[in-house]
Design goal:
It contains no helices and 11 strands. It is mainly beta and 102 residues long. The chain has one domain: 3-layer Sandwich (Rieske Iron-sulfur Protein), CATH 2.102.10.10. The strands form 3 sheets. It has a 4-stranded antiparallel beta sheet with strand order 2-3-4-9, with no helix packed on it. Strands 5-6-7-8 form a 4-stranded antiparallel beta sheet, with no helix packed on it. The radius of gyration is 13 Å and the shape is globular. 29% of the residues are buried. The mean pLDDT is 97. The protein binds FE2/S2 (inorganic) cluster. The site of FE2/S2 (inorganic) cluster has 10 residues, from loops.
């Protein structure tokens, strides 16, 4: 695991996913109030771009076929037997957003 600074909290629009790239990984940052959740940009279904999806609270919906993920856990909410999306631990320190990547 390595820790990477990926954004400033103030630069992340609330309610809208933001794509960043770090160490070759495409990571979606989703700001929900003053919390930030990080997941892979790659949908577990067929690799759709989750950064172009719709964010509602902590639920992110893939733009291609509508799979929905809970960003707190990466669990696929619908369909119920869909695979999870990869998530990354996030910390916020002095307004800077950090994630841990493998
Ligand atoms: S690729 Fe995301 S729902 Fe199909």
């Amino acid at each position: 695991m390595s820790r990477r600074r990926v954004a400033r909290l103030e630069d992340l629009p609330a309610g809208q996913p933001t794509l960043v790239e770090t160490e070759g990984a495409r990571v979606v940052l989703s700001r929900v109030n003053d919390d930030v959740f990080a997941c892979s940009d790659e949908c577990a279904h067929q690799g759709g771009p989750l950064s172009e999806g719709r964010l509602a609270g902590t639920r992110l919906t893939c733009p291609w076929h509508g799979w929905m993920y809970d960003l707190k856990s990466g669990t696929c909410l619908m369909p119920s037997r869909g695979g999870p999306v990869v998530t990354y631990p996030v910390t916020i320190e002095a307004g800077e957003v950090w994630i841990e990547v493998p």
